[in-house]
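Dear Dr. H.,

I hope your travels went smoothly. While you were away I took the liberty of generating a structure for the chain from your last submission, since the lab meeting agenda had it listed for discussion. I wanted you to have the full record in hand beforehand rather than looking at slides cold. The sequence, exactly as received, is reproduced here:
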Amino acid sequence: MGRIDILVEELGDFVSVVEIKASDWDKMTKVNVVRNARRQIRQIWSYVEAELELYDKAVCPGVIFPKQPRDPERLRLIEALFNAEGIQVVWHDEKVQHLQTRMAGQGA
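The corresponding predicted structure, in token form, is as follows:
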């Protein structure tokens, strides 16, 4: 099994696997943003698959990044890449109220 930053087991019918990354998305080219996100997605799913072998439960994956990219388009790209693979993205520097406003603007 790989390395998991957070594993929460006491959730009833599922466990949660959360990876904490230090990616600075602002320093990457768009090509490298996509490449890095896809690499991280594969890594997170390798952890999930290992947990599926250990537990007879659903596994809910997530990732936490320290800060949002400054460019809103880049932020949407990153979230779309992870969300398309079933991985929830959390930005440590984003306040809940800002997230709710942002999601309401996207029709979520």
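Two observations you may find useful: The longest strand covers residues 58-65. The chain is about 45% helix and 25% strand.

With kind regards,
E. W.
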